[in-house]
Amino acid sequence: MAPLARSPYTGKSRRLVIAFDIGTTYSGVSYSILTPGEVPEIYPVTRFPHQGHVGGNCKIPTVIYYDKQGKVCATGIDDLGDFEPDEVEDWTKVQWFKMHLRPKSSATSDAADQITPLPPNKTVIDIFVDFMEYLYDCTRKYIQQTFPNQPDFLASMDRNNAIDFVLTHPNGWEGSQQAQMRQAAVRAKLVPDTDAGRARIRFVTEGEASLHLCIQRGLMTPEMERGEGVLIVDAGGGTIDISAYSRNLAAKEKNTFEEIAAAQCFFQGSIYVTNRARRFIESRLNGSKFQGNIKYIVNEFDKRSKLTFRNKPLYVPANTQERDDKLGIRLGALRLDKEDVAGFFKPSIDCIVNAVKEQRRTAKKTISTVFLVGGFAASDWLYNQIEISMKSLGVKFFRPDSNVNKAVADGGVSYFIDHSVTARVSKHACGARCNTVYDSNDQEHRQRSSQVFRSVDGCHRLPNSFDIILPKDTKVSETKEFRRSYNRTSTNRSDFGYLSDPVLCYKGSSPHPRWTDVDAGSYSTLCNIVDNGQLINTSRYVSNGGYYIIEYDIILALGLTELAAQYAWKENVS
């Protein structure tokens, strides 16, 4: 299929869209200048200070160095060869910091032990701020240098608040992570700290950004054209993101897609292969005369040797001329047997294969095509092992060229411009904790009879009920809202002056979660809905009961890549 034929921009004034792909190991930036009546084009930022030839000049290492005072000394660079040794002696290298933002749940607890700690007196938000400031500064300089005949362009965009940002993130990031990334963007002065400013920050999952990129590049199979499902396996540095889509044949726009299964996120990216290798190398060399070489060897494995592995022994540079046949060191390299290296990869490979099988089982349409994208996809061993399993499943399996794997930021801009995905599938059940009316005919209610209390309206109720507003695995269009009605009662009207309801998310295994004190660790708060004194005006007095009551709805919308939650109520209804 030919690349996407994009329509001219229909906006009334010029805008600038910038997408940041802050990856666990590498990061990139893309942008587009939207001019009314002209067809938008997407460009990568390809010049950064100290940059070598990483990622075809489109990506830089997600690395920051700090001095003892916490001041940024260098950013986006692995090799400090451009600096004096005395200068860098006391610097602290921070990498893989993105993983500290991950949701804190049982599903991610195994990842905690494998992530390098943050430096003292620095939070993950602090580091995101510093890295965003760097990316934005580089982007502005790049645009100024690329369009020298428009010296006032960026200034005019600033004056008109006409710069929009798209931040990509793993499928497993949720409202809390998005809120923290938006906070970092505000602190990094990408946008002002106002409602209008914060609204100029958009989010898209890395899986959906990759789909947009594949569509943009014309990577469509005949099966996809017919409306069969496609699975995007985004194998990155930290996470494996699995996303399933199908073309909406009924839509007016040709390249319109819908999610057909709940997206998944696994902590089995390439850094976990490195961590398994590190533990193996440490167990072999600790206590030997080569113990001081371990850090160097692991870094060489991570940056160079890992992606070159084939089905034969791997020789990793060891920074020594000494020889020790027993430890496998000779000719300046450490020999790793092919069975051992394959073992480093195996959990990640098994994770992907099992996830593909699970998505095919749960998807609402047949999945006949799988695209392997992301930086980790550059590993021939990873690709070949997955290909064997895909052939046995009868699935067409593709690995797009390296330019696709290095340009998730392009997909982020395409998401903003092209908006190809119009429906998504809820990953979890979302709802509210409430006091439900006691039903003596309900067995679970009878088992909780000791918790029954009488509310001020005279009803007998049970606490800790989970009232589902948005069920799991529900297809959600961009315009669809999910709402449930609630009320509150009190003998004191002033109790309604400030109201707050947490929107809860259940991530456990129960197909019908009913109580927030059962499997309590599987519940988390997605966001809080707050009313600062408007609902109190709708209260009414129930004279025969001697109490006040307010009635309202909670509305959830998940059609975009962010959850929207709000109160709704009726006013002045006769």
Could you give a short description of this structure?
With 574 residues, this protein is α+β, with helices and mostly antiparallel strands. 27% of the residues lie in helices and 28% in strands. The N and C termini lie far apart (59 Å).
What distance separates the N and C termini? 59 Å
Count of alpha/pi helices: 15
Number of strands: 29
Proportion in β-strands: 25-35%
Please outline the major beta sheet.
8 strands, mixed
Mean pLDDT: 91
Describe this structure in words.
It contains 15 helices and 29 strands. It has 574 residues and is of the alpha+beta class. The strands form six sheets. Strands 10, 11, 12, 13, 17, 18, 19 and 23 form an eight-stranded mixed sheet that branches. Strands 1, 2, 3, 4, 8 and 9 form a six-stranded mixed sheet that branches. It has a five-stranded antiparallel sheet with strand order 21-22-20-25-26, with no helix packed on it. β10 and β11 form a beta hairpin. α7 packs across α14, α9 packs antiparallel against α10 and α11 packs across α12.
Spell out the key features of this protein:
single chain; about 575 residues; alpha+beta; 8-stranded mixed beta sheet; 6-stranded mixed beta sheet; globular
Chart the SSEs and their pairings:
Elements: E1 15-22, E2 26-34, E3 43-44, E4 60-61, E5 63-66, E6 72-75, H1 85-88, E7 92-95, H2 109-112, H3 124-146, H4 153-159, E8 163-169, H5 175-187, H6 195-198, E9 201-205, H7 206-216, H8 222-225, E10 229-235, E11 240-247, E12 257-259, E13 264-266, H9 270-285, H10 294-305, E14 314-317, E15 329-330, E16 333-336, H11 338-362, E17 367-373, H12 380-393, E18 396-398, H13 402-405, H14 408-418, E19 421-425, E20 429-437, H15 443-447, E21 453-454, E22 460-470, E23 475-477, E24 482-490, E25 499-506, E26 523-531, E27 540-542, E28 547-557, E29 564-568
Parallel strand pairs: 1-8, 8-9, 10-17, 12-19, 17-18
Antiparallel strand pairs: 1-2, 2-3, 2-4, 5-6, 5-7, 10-11, 11-12, 11-13, 14-16, 15-16, 19-23, 20-22, 20-25, 21-22, 24-28, 25-26, 27-28, 28-29
Helix pairs in contact: 3-5, 7-14, 9-10, 9-11, 11-12
